[in-house]
Backbone:
């Protein structure tokens, strides 16, 4: 264990292990030093200079996010041992910070009035705290083109403050590294190699860069106008489905505590927005388990190919298509719950309601920006109709609710429409890393063993660790499973599989660290929150708690799923199920221009 060091911060004795930076030592002792570029565990580069502190003695000003605390030293005059003395908030520091913010804003497009991050922007809130109006150095702006090439996001370098958090998320968390700083000084910008458009490079659409961006420089491509237009069209029957994790995060946009399950209010809000059907994509998640589980059982009986990879996470699927095309046959052919939801709405539901599928508009609310890309995959449709017409993120839904004049706090709890409104606990936990694996194991084990499981909790695959492994004996077979979240972990795992160091039968991969609860379309939280709260664990707890409290915890026992198979699809893995609910993948060129 590292030696503990005591220092004085703002006159308070603070203690932290040797090697800890000043900003972390302060944070651990209840003092929050402002910063724009620092994000715990991801980005500590001392570039924004907002976290400057005074270190008494010869050292002067230091960037707290990179400067380590030091052990007591003998005073040069008296020889007495003196603790390192740090000041975080003197008038001189306040002036320096204000000057830094003024300089940042002098090269910034200050269109706060309509900015997607107004109200959640870390630059805006610091500017307000420090009383910065940016007039001293003029109001300029970079006047560079806004990058709109991809289906999932907008990159506006006019609002970029060069904190490089996005670069770190893309490289360190995702091991994609498709964006980087280019140029020097005031002309520095974050861009792709050779200034290529994002759409022409191997970006996997995960949106992890968006969730860490402190400003409005990065945001999802907003598709809410299309939803409003569909809702206003009397010739359209507009249905909406919400992904498992959205209920665990949407409340954050309305000030609810992180990890609050707001399923009932979310349903009520969607109904007030005017959707003709308000459904749970979790029901489709249960169907996914039936199809994916059946596929896995088939592979067990056929002796492979192993491992079988889950295919629910479109960022992961795209990553596999770019970086591991030789593993495409290992991806489950089952569509994601979003894809299955859309396909069943335009077939089973349309038939049941007697509506022409052409008149149905399917809207999905997803934790994920990559779902926008997935929705537009040509493979995801039937008879020339896309499975999903419009995919919006949790953040976009929150904006629709606000724009729809709906008072969140006054919403009652309502239930999903029954035709696609019952889901098992297994489906709810899809939203957390390990959840799909656990849901599949509950079904696969019961089917293979032909008896009820005594224990439904597969706790070894739970938790936020990047890679988890377990072996379960099912019907006399030692089934080896692994779970990875965050694509850098996925890459590590696949390399171990490729080298023969590891063997698994079944592997769950989620593109976003922690799974969908931390997806690229989820509510943003500032560094002051992210540095102190494990968002992934708190949000996931909401889903596991819901599962634990339920009587229906297995996908194959869901009565709605049983009815869909009994009356429409036949058996899991049937010809009809394959036609509607399975897909294929394509090897992708990394650079197309
Ligand atoms: S990024 Fe922040 S400071 Fe800049 S326009 Fe948007 S809200 Fe305002
Ligand atoms: S969406 Fe994902 S892959 Fe694309 S630039 Fe952002 S972090 Fe990188
Ligand atoms: S795009 Fe956002 S996260 Fe990336 S460097 Fe600019 S401000 Fe920082």
Residues:
């Amino acid at each position: 264990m590292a030696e503990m060091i005591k220092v004085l911060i703002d006159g308070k004795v603070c203690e932290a292990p040797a090697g800890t930076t000043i900003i972390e030592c302060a944070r651990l002792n209840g003092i929050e030093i402002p910063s724009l570029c620092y994000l715990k565990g991801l980005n500590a580069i001392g570039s924004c200079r907002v976290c400057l502190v005074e270190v008494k003695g010869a050292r002067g000003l230091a960037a707290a996010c990179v400067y380590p605390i030091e052990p007591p030293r003998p005073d040069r005059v008296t020889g007495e041992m003196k603790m390192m003395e740090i000041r975080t908030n003197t008038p001189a520091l306040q002036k320096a910070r204000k000057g830094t913010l003024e300089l940042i804003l002098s090269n910034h497009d200050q269109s706060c009035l309509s900015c997607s991050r107004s109200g959640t922007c870390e630059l805006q809130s610091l500017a307000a705290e420090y009383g910065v109006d940016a007039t001293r150095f003029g109001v300029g702006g970079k006047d560079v083109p806004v990058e709109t090439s991809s289906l999932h996001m907008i990159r506006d370098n006019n609002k970029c403050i060069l904190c490089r958090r996005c670069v770190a998320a893309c490289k360190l968390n995702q091991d994609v590294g498709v964006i980087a700083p280019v140029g020097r000084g005031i002309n520095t910008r974050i861009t792709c190699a050779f200034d290529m458009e994002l759409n022409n490079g191997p970006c996997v659409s995960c949106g992890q860069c968006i969730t860490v961006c402190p400003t409005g420089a990065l945001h999802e491509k907003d598709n809410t106008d299309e939803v409003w237009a569909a809702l206003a069209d009397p010739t359209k029957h507009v249905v909406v489905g919400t992904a498992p994790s959205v209920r665990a995060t949407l409340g954050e946009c309305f000030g609810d505590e992180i990890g609050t399950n707001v399923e009932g209010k979310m349903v009520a809000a969607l109904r007030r927005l005017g959707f003709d059907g308000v459904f749970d994509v979790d029901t489709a998640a249960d169907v996914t388990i039936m199809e994916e589980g059946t596929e896995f059982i088939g592979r067990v009986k056929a002796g492979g190919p192993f491992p079988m990879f889950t295919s629910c996470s479109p960022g992961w699927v795209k990553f596999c298509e770019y970086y591991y095309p030789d593993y495409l046959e290992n991806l489950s052919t089952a569509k994601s719950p979003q894809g299955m939801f859309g396909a069943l709405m335009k077939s089973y539901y349309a038939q049941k309601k007697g509506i022409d599928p052409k008149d149905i508009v399917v809207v999905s609310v997803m934790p994920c920006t990559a779902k926008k890309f997935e929705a537009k995959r040509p493979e995801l449709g039937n008879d020339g109709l896309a499975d999903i017409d419009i995919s919006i993120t949790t953040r976009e839904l929150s904006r629709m609710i606000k724009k729809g004049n709906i008072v969140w706090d006054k919403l009652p709890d309502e239930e999903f429409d029954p035709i696609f409104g019952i889901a098992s606990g297994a489906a709810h936990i899809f939203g957390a890393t390990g959840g799909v694996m656990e849901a599949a194991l509950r079904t696969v084990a019961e089917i293979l063993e032909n008896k009820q499981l005594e224990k439904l909790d597969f706790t070894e695959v739970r938790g936020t660790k990047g890679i988890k492994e377990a072996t379960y004996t099912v019907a006399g077979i030692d089934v080896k499973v692994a779970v990875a979240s965050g694509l850098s972990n996925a890459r590590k795992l696949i390399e171990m599989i490729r080298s023969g160091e590891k063997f698994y039968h079944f592997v769950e991969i989620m593109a976003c660290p922690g799974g969908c609860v931390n997806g690229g379309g989820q509510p943003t939280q500032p560094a002051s929150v992210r540095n102190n709260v494990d968002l992934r664990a708190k949000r996931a707890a909401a889903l596991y708690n819901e599962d634990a409290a339920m009587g229906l915890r297995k996908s194959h026992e869901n009565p709605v799923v049983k009815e869909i198979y009994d009356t429409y699809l036949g058996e899991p893995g049937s010809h009809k199920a394959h036609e509607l609910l399975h897909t294929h993948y394509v090897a992708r060129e990394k650079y197309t221009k």
